[in-house]
Design a protein that fits this description.
The complex is a heterodimer of chains A (88) and B (158).
Chain A (H helix, E strand, L loop, with lengths): L10 E4 L3 E9 L2 E7 L9 H15 L6 H13 L10
Antiparallel strand pairs in A: 1-2, 2-3
Chain B lengths: L13 E6 L3 E6 L4 E3 L11 E6 L6 E6 L6 E5 L14 H6 L8 E8 L9 E2 L5 E4 L4 E4 L11 E2 L6
Parallel strand pairs in B: 3-10
Antiparallel strand pairs in B: 1-2, 3-4, 4-5, 5-6, 6-7, 7-8, 7-9, 8-11, 9-10
The chains are: A alpha+beta (88), B mainly beta (158).
Chain lengths: 88, 158
Amino acid sequence: MLILTRKIGEGIILGDDIRIAVLEIRGKQIRIGIEAPPNVVVLREEIYQRIQEENLQAAGVRDVDLKEIANLWKTKKANDPGSTENPD
Amino acid sequence: MTPDPQKTPTEPVSVTITSKHFGDITVREEQIITFSPGLLGFSELHRYVLIEHGQDSPFLWLQCVDKADLAFVVIDPIFVLPDYQIGPINGVHKELDVQNLRDLKVLVILTIPPGRPQDMTANLMGPLLINLANRRGKQLVLESSPYSHKHPVLPAKG
């Protein structure tokens, strides 16, 4: 890992179009500003990991029987007359 | 399959996927949805197709074109949470080049625990947005939303 020391207001450039700046330090918290093009995903690490992990779990589904899921769905619909779905 | 020498350039290009769940499926190029960047955790995989499960079923498969054994079960979130809203997404409109809001399709990915389909959950925190007009898609992450990445789809037993 590259390690740099920065003061408040100073920045770091990644590539040609990403800038990260240290804005404020309050006790143990640091406010960071990030400028990046819209196609660059910028997320807090723990949120990124949560969604990534969920995607991996969802993709890990093996031999899902969608018929079984569809049947579970029909049961839910039958037991849930207050549902907002279109009656059919 | 051998290439057809009779094929003219004006014919629509089609791709055959040997999928895990459906065997060989042939899709026309204009059916392919491009996610760029790819889904989180699958950033190198961009091309997917949506396959309907059946008329009475709200579930869809999102099958990866370039990785046969990668497919997600997805659903329109209205079936999971009728008042689901992804919030302001102006930047995404631009990114997906949305001209008409009606072209915008929102889907959420289901996680189905092995052997316990009744415990399936929907990832309402990481919805998929697809512009049906140009087939461009993106997975959003609703960082400051009240939605869970593991929202129960079916009511708990009991």
